[in-house]
Amino acid sequence: VNGAPSLGALIGAVLAMAAIAPLAYRRWPRGTCGAAAVVSAACFAVLLSHLGAIARGEAIVEVVPWVPSLEVSAALRLDGLSAVFALLITGIGAIILAYAPPYLDWDARGGRLLGLLLAFEASMLGLVLADDTITLFVFWELTSFTSFFLVAFDSSSELARTRARQALVITAGGGLVLLVGLLLLAGAAQPDGVGIAARLSELAGQPLREHPHYAAIVILIAIGAFTKSAQVPFHFWLPGAMVAPSPVSAYLHSATMVKAGVYLLARLYPGLGGTALWIGLLVTVGATTFVVGAVLATVQRDVKLTLAYATVAVLGALTLLLGIGTPYALGGALVLLLAHACYKAALFLTAGNLDHHRGTRDPFAPPGASRDMPVTAATAAVAAASMAGIPPLLGFIAKDAVLAATVEGAAAVVVTIAAVVAGGGLVAAAWLAGLAPYLRGRAPWARADVPVALLVGPAVLAGMSLVLGLVPGLIGGPLIAPALAAVAGRPEPYHVVLWPGLGGAHGLAFGLGLVSIALGAAAARLVWWRREPLASLRGRLGRLSGARAHEAALAGVAHAASRLARAVQHGNLPRYLATVIAAAVLVTALPLVLERGSIISLAELRADTYETPLLLLAAISAIAAAVFRDRLSSVAALAATGLAVTFLFALFSGPDLAITQLTVETMMVILLVLVFRRLPPSATRERHRGRLVRAAVAASAGALVTLLLVFAVSTSGFPTDASDAQARLAPGEGFTNVVNAILVGFRALDTLGEITVLAIAGLGVAALAGACRGGR
Amino acid sequence: MGPMLLRTTASLLVGMLAVLSIFELLRGHAAPGGGFAAGLILAAAVAVQLLAHGVGHARRTLRVAPLTLIGLGLLTAAGAAVSGPVLGEPLLAPLDGPYLPGLMQLGSVMLFDVGVYLTVAGTAVTIMFSLVEDR
């Protein structure tokens, strides 16, 4: 569409609003809240305006070079699949942004919440619009970070901080695995290129499935997607993240962030999907997650936890459908995605209303209380009906599609039974979260409800579930068909209709749907009758979850780190020195001996009249320095070695080295003597074995330096760049000292660093001495 | 207090060493020498005073606090380094000032070397003083 803002501008607008919101909120809370929602809604409208072009099979592409030498570019692309997600992100984003500040009763924290939600929205938008693997990864990690701050929003609560860290460790850790997978993918997509990034839209035609790295790519990327989309065994972070405020859960944990993994799998389907590995992995993990999530959802006694586990179940179903991979399954996944986003966000917001109004999220409490919150109750009932798959809601279409896809897909019998059982669990969960909190009790209906600002958002979302269920054509042609074409890699005939008839798989699916509703009703009765024994069952199931393994792993890392620190930071100065020297000897000597051993020759070695006595002097004083028992004598012997070396330098026409060596030796002797004044009078003699080890280390260091020298003299053709440097540095007369030209001209940056280190070391010594003196 | 011989000759030695250090610094451009060695020679001059007359006298002889020397030195070196970018050249680019005929080339390289000189001398003296000053 000509004249429409670019995709980058959409992300930028949301990001800019994120920067402004926390400040502006202090002055104009209501205005800022409205502006944030309007920005998000405007993005939604812009995206809607692109739908016509996308339905014709076009895509909007924007590419800005980023790191051209590595073929990384900030590439954005809006196609059918991106459009579905981007519309969910901006549309539900607008509703959440309008809901969040009133949920906090317009208190001062609202600005921070708005800013964080907007920052998350921008990251999420970038994630689904990115066409470059590195760009995608950057946004992927940004969603992890922003969601960390959102989960830890109540930062004074230790529980919130712990859960936020848990979510961050799982999702960011998965992100690292994903990065490796994406790099391998980029390498496979361009075998002769040097780039580290690949265009996601260009993967379809590549022979990736035959690539030797294919299995590694799929498994690594799948792990990244599974952590983000809370698949078993990484699912536990999602219920844990329910400490976040309800609007955050509604946005991140139902509609957007947890769908990022599903998005990635769908995005990569044309390039990687459809193989036995893909089907086996996704169907197994997806079906397991579907059942585990649904069963755990029914035994919770907290509306938000029920919803969280139900979300886990639906994410499992989406993974399962992407694994099955028939056009019907892929289309069904897209419908389920939309249906779930609408009803689950609505239910999270009604759960927020419940919390806001009653201060509890227990669906069975208080017993016999008044039936208040009529609007919230009606909203929740509609959304719950969609969740349970009752016609004529959008959830019914989705559920029918899921069951129809499973009866035709891989491992049909097992997967179908799993889907029916899980569907039953979702029905019971829908009753728990959408009906039980409002209908229990016998008192007459009271009109008390939360403020209107908290009623509009969930009502709109629940209304969408109803409208889109009654008029599925609104999404079928403009939204689902282009998205399905993007996932399947080619246009597929797929129609979203409320009543597909009973022909083919649909008859069986409809029957199975009835079975699952019956199952769910039975489960709901059981949960109600057995609500007290369920508490202990919940405890036992909780022990099974990966959260324990996660906490144990974290504690293990901390324990191992402290043991390592104690082993390495022993505080014994001679041992530090010995370690450093031995390590230096090893890493230097090994490659020298292994690779260059053959070219070392002693033919060039000789000493003439003057050099022999100087070498002897140096050697004898070095030995004396080690043997003397008195410190001062040792220092004197050391100084004698240094002087002998100074003379050698002078002999070999190295006056600069000689001068430097002389001044350094002088200063070293002075400093050592001053240090000895502060030491206890007699050196304590250490054990025999320690001396032997140290002697060995010292001897090996000496041997290495000898080896290096021999190597140096037996190698001909040293580079003579020094004179070139001088030529560059000496325009005209003056700069004729090559050594100094290098030190303060050619390599002046090194020198600048060195004198800075020197100064810091001096300050450190002064501080240490001062601390010792003052006893502080 | 150091031995009498040292006490008697200290002032002479200190003056000679100080002059020698400046000579080495300026000479570094064209002949062996340079800021590093010169800085250590200056520190040696202070060390003579310290060993002969004690730390208080040495401090008075130096006149400035050694930490000030370090700061001045780093600032000078950094100033010489950024003089390039300020004048539209790359960082640490050698910029030539006036040439003193028969003596030396003034410019950013010389300035940088002065920075090295002050930093090295300041650091060495700081360490010496902190080791000596009483527990």
Short description:
Chain A is mainly alpha-helical and 776 residues long.
3D structure, described in words:
The complex is a heterodimer of chains A (776) and B (135). Chain A has helices at residues 7-27, 29-55, 80-103, 110-129, 133-151, 158-189, 214-228, 237-240, 246-255, 260-272, 276-298, 303-324, 327-358, 374-388, 394-408, 412-439, 453-470, 473-488, 505-529, 533-544, 546-568, 573-596, 611-627, 631-651, 655-678, 688-713, 721-729, 738-746, 748-774; strands at residues 60-67, 72-78. Chain A is an all-alpha fold. Chain B is built from five helices and two strands; from the N terminus they run ααααββα. A two-stranded antiparallel ribbon of chain B has the order 1-2. Chains A and B meet through α25, α28 and α29 of A and α2, α4 and α5 of B.
Keywords for this entry:
heterodimer, A: 776 residues, mainly alpha, two-stranded antiparallel ribbon, 29 helices, B: 135 residues, 72% helix
Let me know the average pLDDT of chain A.
86
- Terminus-to-terminus distance of chain B: 17 Å
Total strands of chain B: 2
Number of helices of chain B: 5
Kindly report the average pLDDT value of chain B: 86
**Pair with the biggest interface:** A-B, 46 and 51 residues
DSSP strand tally of chain A: 2
Low-confidence stretches of chain A: none
Structural class of chain B: mainly alpha
Detail the topology: elements first, then pairings.
The complex is a heterodimer of chains A (776) and B (135).
Chain A (H helix, E strand, L loop, with lengths): L6 H21 L1 H27 L4 E8 L4 E7 L1 H24 L6 H20 L3 H19 L6 H32 L24 H15 L8 H4 L5 H10 L4 H13 L3 H23 L4 H22 L2 H32 L15 H15 L5 H15 L3 H28 L13 H18 L2 H16 L16 H25 L3 H12 L1 H23 L4 H24 L14 H17 L3 H21 L3 H24 L9 H26 L7 H9 L8 H9 L1 H27 L2
Antiparallel strand pairs in A: 1-2
Chain B lengths: L3 H24 L7 H19 L1 H8 L3 H21 L9 E5 L3 E4 H25 L3
Antiparallel strand pairs in B: 1-2
